[in-house]
Amino acid sequence: MALNMTSRNVVKKVLAVETPEGAGARVRRSIGSATLRNLTPFLLLDHFHVSEGAGFPDHPHRGQATVTYMLEGSSRHEDSAGHSGTIQTGGVQWMCAGKGIIHAEMPVHGKNVPEPRGLQLWVDLPKNVKMTEPTYQELDPEAIPVAYPEGKDGNISIKVISGKSHGVESPVRPLGGCWYFHVMMNNGATMFQDIPAGWTAFVYILKGALSVGESGPVNDAFHTLVLSNENGETGVRLTAATNDTSFVLVAGEPLDQTVFQYGPFVMTNQEEIQRTLMDYRTGRNGFEKAHTWKSKIGNM
């Protein structure tokens, strides 16, 4: 814990409005929407739920990491590098697309099965590792460590998906700096989370209400709160205004590079995007299986 606990504050507040996405999916998008862009290194944040019959069959990525965290239900994953698995409620999949990968993400439906709901975060990769080999890490719920700042019988629990919180460290090792916490608090509970100096940070409220800083206003569910980044601020103070308040706190090292995005391809200039499209069309430089690989789960 930092000795000097000077809190960041909210500098921008964005309501993530629920909208249809494809056939059968509904998404609350904040980062990546018209109202919240250029929040390096973060490219997109979707709070999704998917009805039966919908899903995300085979599609490519290059140049970013995708982080899928299941809040309810489960989702299956399969990719062209040979990885496959099922993300259960409370589990996470951290996929670094690197120079190229094709994958499918298909929610699991059935009798007495909760409708799949979760968060997907896209994190830009530093320019010098955009063309690295793809990697994939999946953690079941029991493999994600939990910090209890007040002890296990207290009013705060912090799932440490990546990074460090209150003496607990995640086994996830993403390229570039990125901390990701899922916090649950009861009314009146307060905590201070250290954040590395200079890092971009935001909070997304899943349920309940929350104030930020020493005397900030109360913010309701489905708002993304962009935090200040001033010299001397060592972290953020967070206080729950209702019982069962639930939110994610995410922080990452900003990248001094431009973002050139064409759908699922994220590079740093137009020439690199054109080269990516050519690589995908011709099946090379990471997309060797682009026209031959088909997932089982996306083509059932």
From TrEMBL:
Binds 1 Fe cation per subunit. GO terms for molecular function: metal ion binding. Gene3D superfamilies: Jelly Rolls. The keyword Iron applies. Residues 25-123 form the Pirin N-terminal domain. Fe cation binds at residues 59, 61, 103, 105. Its cofactor is Fe cation. The keyword Iron applies. It comes from the Eukaryota. Residues 180-286 form the Pirin C-terminal domain. Keywords: Iron, Metal-binding. InterPro entries: Pirin, Pirin_C_dom, Pirin_N_dom, RmlC-like_jellyroll, RmlC_Cupin_sf. Belongs to the pirin family. This is Pirin.
